[in-house]
Write a structure and sequence with these properties.
The protein is mainly beta. 9% of the residues lie in helices and 47% in strands. It has two domains: 93 residues, Immunoglobulins (Immunoglobulin-like), CATH 2.60.40; 276 residues, TolB, C-terminal domain (Neuraminidase, 6 Propeller). The chain contains three helices and 34 strands. The N and C termini lie far apart (128 Å).
Length: 420
C-alpha cells in the first residue's frame, strides 16, 4: 500500500513539472509581439538578381536608356542603385546615370556619360548586403566626340563636301591661316588663302568652291577655290553686312545679315536681288521650299520663314518659332534641319547647360537634344551626307576651348543643294 502511494506521488510531481514547462512556453508566446514574427512576404534581405538587359542597337553615353530585367528589385525607385563599373545612379548629377522607372522585376535607367566596350551592370537594393551575382556587360559608345581644335588652334565656320571632308577657317596662335580641309582620316591641309578676316559661315558649292561670310561682316559673299584667293560677290546696299548663307534647290545663294534685306544671288553671280526683311539675320537655311532665318528685332528673337515662289518672288515672312517666348534667355546662333523636318537650334548656352541644342518638331513642340552631353555655345552647323552633325563649339573663358565637335544624330540631315 505504501509502495502504491509513493508511485502516485512521483507521477503527480512529474505531471506538475511538465505542466509548468508547458505553461512557461505559453507565457513566452503571449509576451512575443506579433510584429516580431517573420513575414513570409518580406524580401528585403533577398539579393537582387539580373536575368537580362534590354538595350538599343547602339548605347550612347549619357543619352540612351536600357531596361534591366530580373527579380527582387525594390518597387520604390530610390531604393535601387544601378552601377555601371564605377558609375552609379546614386550620383546622377555627376554621372548623368538616372533611374527612371522601377518595379520588383524591372529597372529602366539612362546610362552614364561613360564610354567603354565592356561595362559591367550591377544592381543593389538598399538594406541588402550583396549585389547580383550574374555578370552582364554592355558596350557604351560616345555620341559626341571632339574632331579638331585646342587652345592654340581655333576653327570657325564649317561645311562638309560629299566625300566627308570638312572645311573651316583656321586661326593658329592668333594668326588667320585661311581655309583648311580636314579629311575623314584626320589629314589637315591648306584649301584657300587667308582673307582679310575669318569666316563665320561656310557652304560648299557644287563647283567645288567654298562660299562664306566673314567677320567683321561686310556686304559680300566670298567664293574660295582650291588653292586660290577669295573672290568677292558684293551686293549693292552699302549698309548691308552679310552674316549667313545657303543654297536653294536651283543653286541660288540666299544670304542675309544686317541692313534690311535678304538677297538672292544666282549661281554665276550675274544677278543679285534684294528682298525687304528688317530683322537682323543670325543664321539662314533653305528647307523644303522655304528660307528659314534665325533673326532678332529689338529685344525679340524668332525663327521666321519665307516661301520661295520663284527666283524673283518670295512670300511674306511669318514666325515659325518664337525664340523669346519659348527659350529665353537663350539666343539662337545656328539652325539646321533633319531629313524628316525637325529643326535644330544651336544656342548660346554655355558648357553643359542642357539648352545648348534644341529640337523643334513639325507640330511646334520642342525639347532639349542630348542635354548636357552636347556642350555649347554652338556657333555653326554642318550636316554630312549621313547621320553626323558637325558643329563649332565656342570658347568659354578659361574653362572651354573652341573646337569642332561631331554628333551622331541617328538620322540624316535635310537635302543640302550646294554640294549636289
Amino acid at each position: 500500500m505504501k509502495k502504491n502511494n509513493l508511485s502516485f506521488t512521483i507521477l503527480k510531481k512529474v505531471i506538475t513539472i511538465q505542466f509548468a514547462i508547458l505553461f512557461s512556453f505559453v507565457l513566452i508566446s503571449c509576451d512575443t509581439d506579433v510584429n516580431e514574427l517573420p513575414d513570409p512576404d518580406d524580401t528585403s534581405e533577398i539579393t537582387p538578381k539580373i536575368t537580362s538587359v534590354d538595350t538599343p542597337d547602339s548605347i550612347w553615353a549619357g543619352i540612351s536608356e536600357i531596361v534591366v530585367n530580373g527579380q527582387d528589385f525594390s518597387p520604390v525607385l530610390e531604393n535601387n542603385i544601378v552601377y555601371f563599373d564605377g558609375y552609379s545612379t546614386s550620383d546622377a548629377s555627376e554621372t548623368f546615370a538616372v533611374l527612371l522607372e522601377a518595379t520588383s522585376t524591372m529597372l529602366r535607367v539612362k546610362v552614364p556619360y561613360y564610354v567603354s566596350d565592356s561595362v559591367e551592370v550591377k544592381v543593389a537594393v538598399q538594406g541588402v548586403e550583396n549585389f547580383n551575382e550574374t555578370t552582364f556587360l554592355i558596350n557604351i559608345k560616345a555620341a559626341v566626340i571632339e574632331i579638331f581644335g585646342d587652345g592654340d588652334n581655333l576653327p570657325s565656320g564649317i561645311t562638309v563636301d560629299n566625300s566627308q571632308n570638312l572645311y573651316f577657317n583656321h586661326n593658329a596662335f592668333g594668326v588667320n591661316e585661311g581655309l583648311k580641309r580636314f579629311s575623314p582620316s584626320g589629314v589637315l591641309e591648306n584649301f584657300a588663302a587667308k582673307s582679310g578676316s575669318f569666316y563665320i559661315d561656310l557652304k560648299y558649292g557644287r563647283d567645288g568652291r567654298v562660299y562664306g561670310t566673314r567677320s567683321p561682316t561686310v556686304r559680300a559673299v566670298f567664293a574660295n577655290a582650291d588653292g586660290g584667293t577669295p573672290s568677292a560677290i558684293a551686293v549693292a546696299n552699302s549698309a548691308a553686312k552679310l552674316i549667313s548663307l545657303d543654297f536653294d534647290n536651283n543653286y541660288n545663294i540666299w544670304t542675309g545679315g544686317v541692313g534690311g534685306d535678304v538677297y538672292r544671288i544666282t549661281e554665276d553671280a550675274s544677278d543679285k536681288k534684294p528682298f525687304p526683311f528688317e530683322p537682323e539675320v543670325k543664321s539662314l537655311r533653305f528647307y523644303d521650299g522655304y528660307i528659314y532665318v534665325a533673326a532678332k528685332m529689338d529685344s525679340t528673337e524668332a525663327i521666321y520663314r519665307m516661301q520661295v515662289i520663284d527666283s524673283d518672288n518670295i512670300g511674306a515672312a511669318e514666325v515659325y518659332f518664337d525664340v523669346t517666348a519659348n527659350i529665353a534667355p537663350y539666343s539662337v546662333n545656328a539652325i539646321t534641319f533633319s531629313s524628316d523636318g525637325k529643326m535644330f537650334l544651336g544656342t548660346d548656352a554655355e558648357g553643359d547647360d542642357p539648352n545648348a541644342l534644341i529640337v523643334v518638331n513639325t507640330d511646334g513642340s520642342f525639347n532639349t537634344w542630348y542635354p548636357r552631353v552636347i556642350t555649347g555655345p554652338i556657333l555653326a552647323f554642318a550636316w554630312d551626307t549621313g547621320d553626323y552633325l558637325y558643329y563649332v563649339r565656342g570658347l568659354v573663358g578659361d574653362t572651354q576651348v573652341q573646337k569642332i565637335m561631331r554628333i551622331n544624330m541617328e538620322m540624316p540631315g535635310a537635302p543640302y543643294y550646294g554640294r549636289d
